[in-house]
Amino acid sequence: MKSTFSNPKPLHAAIIMDGNGRWAAARGWPRTAGHRAGADALRRTVEAAPSLGVSMLTLYAFSSDNWKRPSAEVGALMNLLQTYLHKETSRCVENGVRIGFLGRRDRLSLSICAAIESAENATAGGDRLHVRIAVDYSARDAILDAATRLRAAGEINRENFARALAGGRDGPRAAEVDLLIRTGGEQRLSDFLLWECAYAELYFTPVMWPEFGAADLEAAVSEYYRRERRFGGLALEPAAS
Ligand code: FPP
Q1: Which position among 24, 53, 73, 241 has the lowest Cβ density within 10 Å, counted as fewest Cβ atoms?
Q2: What is the pTM of this model?
Q3: Is residue 67 in a domain?
Q4: CATH of residue 28
């Protein structure tokens, strides 16, 4: 489908999906009900992204600090991730959506790792939207890890560092975020994509994640196009006639 926005440059949007617990508590429901509703919001957002000109969507599903939560909630989140992948993978294949993951895998269960690998393999050919789910992710740990590998392997400069952060020495650079969205009313980055967000436009909305949908993503993208991105330079002068 053609993008709603005329600007041709595809966007990398990243989302901190916050507010599941408060949304559920406000209804007298357990926090896990909020996470389940959050999975529905995720599905809606993935469906809406391509027609809004978003070609990469990076989602914060579980931070390395989320291990501090009660084990029942951690278990429910992991089960939800596994169920989501089982249910959504074939739909992603049909719709040209590639699924990838960021974060550590060595603390995830074997069954979660298998579900992740199977989703990555099955959707590897998707070229309409690249969805990246951050699980057991910490930007500071990712930066430390890249710096450690680079120190052993070669010259440290921005270019090499950006490649190391993406996982390799010769591959792609870590994807710069254009638009960072955080739902749920809080206004912080919570250790998410700290390098990649160096020049991201930040968009905070009070909408709780379970209520987020296509109209909210469109509002965020519209706001992005109203901003002037100068990257430390000066505003462009209109061309002299
Ligand atoms: C933050 O809200 C949300 C999370 C820690 C989990 C995000 C998970 C989902 C959106 C579920 C679906 C994800 C996948 C990948 C299937 P919070 O619980 O901290 O909310 P609160 O600030 O209101 O307590």
Answers
A1: 241
A2: 0.94
A3: yes
A4: 3.40.1180.10
With a 6 Å cutoff on the Cβ, whether 11 touches ligand 1 is no
Tell me the two tokens of residue 125: 């050919």
Answer whether residue 5 is part of any domain: no
What is the CB neighbour count within 10 angstroms for residue 132? 19
Catalytic site residue from 20, 40, 66, 160: 66
Using a 10 angstrom Cβ sphere, with 0-12 exposed, 13-18 middle and 19 or more buried, the burial of residue 153 is exposed
Domain enclosing residue 70, as ranges: 11-226
Number of domains forming the structure of the chain: 1
The CB of 38 under 6 Å from ligand 1? The reply is yes
Q: Flag whether 6 is in a domain.
A: no
Joined tokens for residue 74: 């951690």
Per-residue pLDDT of the chain (241 residues; tens, 9 = 90+): 456 666 668 999 999 999 999 999 999 999 999 999 999 999 999 999 999 999 999 999 999 999 999 999 999 999 999 999 999 999 999 999 999 999 999 999 999 999 999 999 999 999 999 999 999 999 999 999 999 988 887 788 999 999 999 988 777 889 999 999 999 999 999 999 999 999 999 999 999 999 999 999 999 999 999 998 888 888 876 665 5
